[in-house]
Design a protein that fits this description.
heterodimer; A: mainly alpha; 7 helices; globular; B: mainly alpha; about 80% helix; about 0% strand; extended
Chain lengths: ~120, ~160
């Protein structure tokens, strides 16, 4: 139960950070998501994002910043096994689920649904 | 950036910019943040529920469970986008629906649906990542740089 509250608070806090980037720093939503992804990648490289996922569960793994972290951790894990080429082969290893499901279901949606309004 | 822009404008234009800025509606920062907090927190709590489901019934660990969780949320977000519900939620929640991975799925699905009239190859295939592309491009490039720096540091310092 405690986990659910942590997920709510941490996930909500990351979303507030995004909202502040839009409203106070006048970033467009695209610039805001890009900043969060880059921040996630840097935190992942410093080894700080994985503890956050352990602490907050989905509160840290659902926001887009975890995308940057997964890219880095996939690249580093593969580089440990296969040397420097692993950075290229491993970069999408962890994020494959997110990107491929977005492509597959996005395409299926375009077959089924018609644009609204 | 605004200073650089102002240098090119004439005095009247600058006056107008100031005039327009004074009349721009103030953004309700506090209520926007509260909406974002509630919506984002709720989406993450739903994610936590799926994560708990995958961990207790399908034998995933805390770290590996985030993959199927993200995929599940993406399916839900794509369906909500298709039925036209997600946009209504997003209007109220602002950043609360853009930041979670569901916002990424929403941009992919809405771009795909919107451009379907231009044909499946050039319309859907070509425009699907029109809005979501920057996230992937900058995410991959920054991840590449971070990974290379970390590998070099490890090689030098033997961490």
């Amino acid at each position: 139960m405690e986990k659910f509250i942590l997920a709510f608070v941490v996930g909500g806090a990351i979303c507030v950070l995004g909202q502040i980037l839009i409203d106070v720093f006048r970033l467009t939503p695209a610039h805001m998501t890009v900043s969060l992804v880059v921040a996630g990648a840097i935190l992942g490289g410093l080894g700080l994002y994985e503890p956050l996922i352990k602490f907050a569960g989905a509160g840290a793994s659902v926001p887009i910043s975890s995308f940057g972290n997964s890219l880095v951790s996939g690249a580093l894990a593969e580089a440990e096994k296969n040397g420097i080429v692993g950075v290229l082969t491993g970069i999408f290893e962890v994020t494959s689920a997110g990107i491929s499901s977005a492509i597959i279901f996005g395409f299926m949606a375009s077959l089924i649904f018609k644009p609204k309004g | 950036m605004s200073n650089k822009k102002n240098k090119k404008l004439s005095a009247t234009q600058q006056e107008y910019q100031k005039f327009a800025k004074d009349r721009e509606p103030k953004r309700p920062l506090l209520s926007n943040c509260i909406h974002a907090f509630i919506a984002g927190g709720t989406i993450c709590t739903i994610g936590q529920f799926f994560q708990w489901l995958y961990m207790t019934h399908f034998g995933f660990t805390e770290i590996t469970a985030s993959n199927p969780t993200v995929a599940t949320l993406i399916i839900i977000a794509v369906l909500l986008t298709g039925f036209g519900v997600y946009d209504h939620i997003a209007q109220w929640a602002g950043g609360g629906t853009i930041v979670p991975v569901t916002g990424f799925a929403n941009t992919v699905a809405s771009a795909a649906i919107e451009h379907r009239s231009e044909g499946y190859v050039l319309g859907v295939g070509g425009n699907m990542f029109k809005i979501a592309g920057p996230v992937i491009t900058f995410g991959v490039f920054s991840a590449f740089v971070v990974a290379i720096i970390k590998i070099i540091l490890q090689a030098l310092g033997g961490m």
